[in-house]
Every structure is written in structure tokens, then in C-alpha cells.
Design goal:
FAD/NAD(P)-binding domain, 494 residues, 29% helix, globular
Amino acid sequence: MLKFNFEGNNMTLNNNYFDVIILGAGLSGIGAAYHIQDKCANKTFTILEGRENMGGTWDYFKYPGLRSDSDMFTLGYPFRPWKEQKAIADASSILKYIKETAEEFGLDKKIRFQHKVLKADWNSETQLWTLEIETPENKNLKLTCSFFYSCSGYYSYKEGYTPDFKNNELFEGKTMHPQAWETEYNYTDKKIVVIGSGATAVTLVPELAKKAEHVTMLQRSPTYITSVPSKDKNAARISKWFPAKIARSLNRWKNILYMITVYQIATRWPNKLKELLLTGVKRWLGDKADIEKDYTPKYNPWEQRLCVVPDGDFFKAIKKDKASIITDQIESFTKGGILLKSGKEIKADLIVTATGLNIELVGGVKVSIDGKEGETSSLHSYRGVMLSDVPNFAIAIGYTNASWTLKCDLNSKYVCRVLNYMDKNNLKTVIPKFDSKYETNEAFLNLDASYIQRSISKLPRQGSKSPWRVYQNYIYDLFSIKYSKIKGTGLKFE
């Protein structure tokens, strides 16, 4: 996990200097670069990408059926709206969109590929970050910057999370984690077991079912699954009635307000939303499903993220008997598959461990301040943008209850506001200073999902009130981040 350092070392300004260094050339990194270029035209910047390609998640993951689980009107950039018909888009379409955006604004020329950042250290005397970087040509490259902006998400690119299954070495078939999918593997006419019930599992099952003999989704407990149209008919109508620019704005706000409304219903009337979601499953599956056992979670809607399936593809695979759900626990792996606690054995040629991600902030970079380490859990999130006691640093983390880009876009706008304020007032350093009267023990990623809960003790905290509270509400954040005062709100300038 991320660690911070707090005392003494000497660094000098060198020729490899940038005003801003952005970490990661994915969806949020390209968005951040656009805003720096657009709103801070006097700033020099570069994007450091550890891999060979841009696109982040949408280039890195290769498993079948990879797609967005948010609509593209809100997952897309507001400065370059999504123009395709499909609201729920596949990975290749999203990757194409990111690349075209980078090329249109010349941001692709700002990317340094295969620049893996190993360490980042802030020096209080020089008021600069020094980044230690590994490239194929140079194992010890160093760049300096005044402001370090992490847009690398929050999961580890090294490997996904796989539990230690008993006797897993006995299984004679193939085992794969979606994060390390082998694209050359032919799963045609195979018996497949997908372990998991999250977004990755419900994406994989209908896609694998197209070629496999049968796909079984094996879950310890159910998740809420809801079908949405892959093409938004209302958006199409709006596009016919209004000029293109107005239509795109209306479609975006229509979906923003819809997501906020659903989340508010979930928090205020969870039983009503629960009933509505389960009624939707019944409409799709009728008597082919044990709704109580396989589709009714123990938690309320939006305590964990809802699983969205376009055009009911998951339910269609179940109806055609190409896929099925088993709710049980794993006793052990066997030579031919998986033995369950109930005593039943599921035969398998391929076992897919869609069991989650490993949390890793700032892309695994060892972040330090003047050479002394401190635990990430001692830090507090400032407006969901910066971290307490960490100078000239910001992080792009999206919403857990809405499209990722909505929050990341606001974060980038706030970073630009801060940078421009510092320029106007001849300031070099900004440090969020937490007030202990707002102390809570809540992590800034407040979601009851397994991948979050496994790392929650190591994550930064959030406070009880603004600006230290992470509200997960776009409209609140829009006013708080875009229009709030910079001075006198918990930020210390030097």
C-alpha cells in the first residue's frame, strides 16, 4: 500500500522539470491533461504511463465482454461528449474514444510511455517533487515537478485478488483470473465455472455462454442485478428534437439526475428499490429462478455497487440454459472441478476466479515527504481531491455510485483552480491541514464491497463535514469543488 515520508533529503532542480506531472494515461489521466492544457495554459506538463499503451482499464483488461457499467453520456468527457448510439459501450469503443480524444487535443504527444514511476519524494526546501522512473533505456531516470497529480485509479495492475482455495493444485483444467486473461485460450464447448457475483462475473457469464457448453456462476451470496437498454431511446428522441450540443448536455444531465435519484431512493427507501429490482428479475426469469436464494442480497441496494447488464444479456443466457447460478460455498477444488459445502460437485474445464481486485493507490508508487514514511490511513481526504499533510498533490478517484469520470472531471477542474490561485498570489506550496474536530474512522472509499473492505484499514480517512467529507453526490460536489472559496477552507499556502 501507499506510504508517505516526512523528513530530510536534498534535491536540486534539473532540466527534466515540469510544472505538473500526471500519473496514468487512462480515462482520467487524459481528462486531467485536457484541463491543465485548457485552464492552465502557462503550465508545462507531461503524462507518465508505465505501460506501452494509453487507455488504462480499457486497454489493460482483455477478458471477454469487457464493457462499461455506466452510461457513456456520463462516463464520457463533458468537453468531448460521446456521440455513438450505444449508451453501454464495449471496451474497444471506449478505448477508441480515449485515443481519439487524446489525438484531437494533442495530448497523445504529452505522454511518455513505458515510464514506470517507482518513487516520488517531496522536498520542503526546494518545494519540488522528484520522481524516480524506470524506462527500458534508463533504469534511473529522474524528473522533477511542482505538482504531482495521480490519475492511476485505485487497483493494482500487478495481479487481481484470488483467495487461497483448498486443493486448488489438484484441478486438472485451466484456472484464470479475469485480470490476467489469456486471449489465445479457446473456451468453445467447455464447461466453465465463474467464481464471483460482481460486475466482472455478470459481464463474463453471458459472453462466455455464447461459445461454452455451459457457464455456472458460483457465488457465496447474491448481488443486485438490473437490466438497462444498451441504446438509450430517450436519448435518441432528445437528439432528434434538439440541436446536437444542447441534446448532448440534456442527455448527460438526464442520466446524472437519474443516478442521483436512484441513489437517494436507495438510501431513504431501500425496501422499495429492493422490491423494484427483484421484480425486474422476476419479469426476466419467471419460474426459472429462485429469487430469494440466488438474487436477493443480504444488504440493501447501493451498499454495494449495482450490477448492470445491457439488454438483459445475463438473464437471456440463464433462460436459454446456457448459464446458471449456484449459491453455495467452496469446500475445495477437485481434479474435475469444485466440491461445494453442500456436497455437490461442479464439473469444469475452466475455472474463472472473478474474485476481485487488490487496492493500490497512486499506482504502487512509493510516495514520501522529505524521506520519512507515514501510513496512508493517517491521512484525510480533502474534497475527495487532495490528502492532508501532502503538499502539491492530488488524486483522481471517481464515484462509487455513479460514473467514474464525473468526479475525476471535477477533481481536475479543482486542481486547475488551485494552481491558478497559487500563480495569482505568487504561492508555491499548498497543503491541506486536517482539523481534528472533524475526525471519524470512515475510509474515503466508503463502500461495502469485498475489495474495499480487505484494504479499508490502510486507506485514507474522511471527516464528518465538508471539506473533509466525501459525499458521493455530483450536484453537491459541482458547487463545492467548482465554486467554493480556495482561501480559508482548510488549505495552507506558502
